[in-house]
Design brief:
Length: 177
């Protein structure tokens, strides 16, 4: 059996030339690059005053719709939760009784509806899966927060204001007020 030998190679160090020793060409080249960047147009956008253009297919914050009578459209079928690849949507179904909120038959609704925005990948599959058009992704940003609990949006956060009982909140949400 042959013993493994370690090969080594001597490093040849060339002596530096005069220009390389004084570093002046390298410093001047670096300063030229720096001054070139100082006078270019800045890529930063001052956000509150100016906004950058978004793609027409931008998906933002989730919103739960209401029907013509002001009731929530969600019937708690669970298709949005099943379609969500990140499993960010959780819901619990309940039934409204006859005569409640102007109903003449029993109807299901989402007693609890939550979206965990830390899990959401904004794919839009929940929007496509909903047969009642109850959920859609708006063009607004999801606001930032400092705590994890602030990223779990409940039904109260997602549901648009009722036009019959909360007209001033609806106008504020649309930006009319």
């Amino acid at each position: 059996m042959q013993a493994l030998t370690q090969r080594s190679r001597a490093v040849d160090r060339k002596p530096l030339t005069l220009w390389e020793r004084i570093y002046l060409p390298a410093v001047l080249k670096g300063m030229t690059i720096t001054f070139g960047h100082m006078f270019k147009k800045r890529p930063t956008i001052n956000y509150p005053e100016k906004t950058r253009p978004f793609s027409p297919v931008f998906r933002g914050l989730h919103v739960l719709n209401r029907d013509e009578e002001g009731r929530e459209r969600c019937t708690a079928c669970g298709l949005c939760a099943v379609a969500c690849p990140a499993e960010a949507i959780t819901m619990e179904a309940a039934e409204r009784k006859n005569g409640e909120e102007g109903l003449y038959r029993e109807e299901k609704y989402a007693a609890r509806y939550e979206i965990n925005m830390l899990r959401c990948i904004f794919c839009g599959l929940c929007e496509e899966a909903c047969p009642k058009d109850a959920i859609y992704l708006s063009e607004t940003f999801a606001p930032s927060n400092f705590a994890r609990k602030g990223f779990i949006y409940g039904k109260d956060d997602l549901l648009i204001p009722n036009p019959k009982t909360q007209p001033e909140e609806l106008a504020k949400a649309r930006g009319e007020a």
